[in-house]
Amino acid sequence: MNAVAKPVFNKKAITDIRHDWSREEILALFTQPFSDLMFQAQTVHRANFDPNQVQVSTLCSIKTGACPEDCAYCPQSARYDTGLEKEKLMAVQAVIDEAKAAKASGATRFCMGAAWRSPKGRDMGYVTDMVKGVKGLGLETCMTLGMLKSEQAEQLADAGLDYYNHNLDTSPEYYGDVITTRTYSDRLETLDNVRNAGMKVCCGGIVGMGEEESDRAGLLQQLANMKEHPESVPVNMLVKVEGTPMADQADLDPFDFIRTIAVARIIMPKSHVRLSAGREEMNEQMQAMAYLAGANSIFYGEKLLTTPNPEASKDMLLFKRLGIHQESYELHMDEKEQEAALVKSLADEQESIKNDKFFYTA
Ligand code: SF4
């Protein structure tokens, strides 16, 4: 009988930050037997994080729809008729009120997203005021506003923005099949501007867009070989929205999604890997498997722009059943307050269903 090669682990291999991953090495991780991959991912996860802790962010769409870009998966593009109701930039106070509600539900990071190609000069005062206001509540802040010039990145950093989200979406080779209105190098330039301004980077992609496994490996290779790994790596599963060019895309094998999470965990051992858009279509067992594969961040609450998110309370209940606790949450709240937040989120559930809000792919 042929012996099957087992992954070799040592302390160095599971905590080392590398920036020289080849596509072949990453593909070899993807194609190993599923149990071996999960064992390796879980080993890396445990060496770098509390395996039962998940970071929780809430996303607020501060400006919805009418985006001039042509991202083929996105219902916010003005080019596709998806029935999405567009909304102007929210008032600063309204955003701060949303942030307060998010904090009361246990979120520790508040992400603000605007469907823009890039912010205009006149928008910068509003968005920097939002950052200051949300920071003032004691929340971490994140924004996704499209492409940023270096001076815009500096303005946001000066206002106290902690994270900037800008996804690469897919591999450089597949990118042209998804977006034509901005290039891969445009995206890398924005990410450089964010880093140079001293902010943390949130950057990931979307799987299930018809790409090959080598494209998923290519996306992760780009992320892992950055000078610094993104602190946050969202892995989105395509949400097929009627009216977008990707509406009829074939379903991705759920194990391929889990494999992507696991490989991201192995090659970016100290990054938060975020289980992001597409959770609505995952059952609890699949979400639990994603946590096992090393996902340790989620969006919580009712706002991801492309799809309704599983209601906040469902997440809380699943956390309870799996023995997961929220990162940083316990720093701010004692047991009683946690319980009160859970009760409140249960009460909010019906309201959030009624409101039928939308989610981002970040
Ligand atoms: S993903 Fe962002 S940039 Fe692309 S169309 Fe949607 S909102 Fe615009």
Q: Which distinct ligands sit in these coordinates?
A: iron/sulfur cluster
Task: Give the termini separation.
Answer: 46 Å
What is the string of helix and strand elements? HHHEHEHEHEHHEEHEHEHEHEHH
Overall shape = globular
User: What fraction, in percent, of the residue positions are helical?
Assistant: 40-55%
Strand runs, count: 10
Mean pLDDT across the residues is 84
Largest sheet: 10 strands, parallel
How does the helix and strand content classify structurally? alpha/beta
Indicate the radius of gyration in whole angstroms: 19 Å
Given the structure, what is the number of helices? 14
Q: Give the low-pLDDT segments.
A: 1-5, 303-307, 329-362
Approximate strand percentage: 5-15%
What's the short story on this structure?
The chain has helices at residues 11-15, 23-31, 34-48, 92-104, 121-135, 150-159, 172-175, 184-196, 213-224, 254-267, 284-292, 312-322, 329-332, 335-355, and strands at residues 53-63, 109-114, 140-144, 163-165, 200-202, 205-207, 232-237, 272-275, 297-299, 325-326. The chain is α/β, with parallel strands linked by helices. Strands 1, 2, 3, 4, 5, 6, 7, 8, 9 and 10 form a ten-stranded parallel β-sheet that branches.
Report on the architecture of this protein.
With 362 residues, the protein is an alpha/beta fold. The chain has 14 helices and ten strands. Strands 1, 2, 3, 4, 5, 6, 7, 8, 9 and 10 form a ten-stranded parallel β-sheet that branches. α4 (92-104) runs parallel beside α5 and α10 runs parallel beside α11. It is globular and about 50 Å long. The model is unreliable at 1-5, 303-307 and 329-362 (pLDDT under 50). The chain binds iron/sulfur cluster. Iron/sulfur cluster (SF4) binds at residues 67, 69, 71, 74, 76-77, 115, 146.
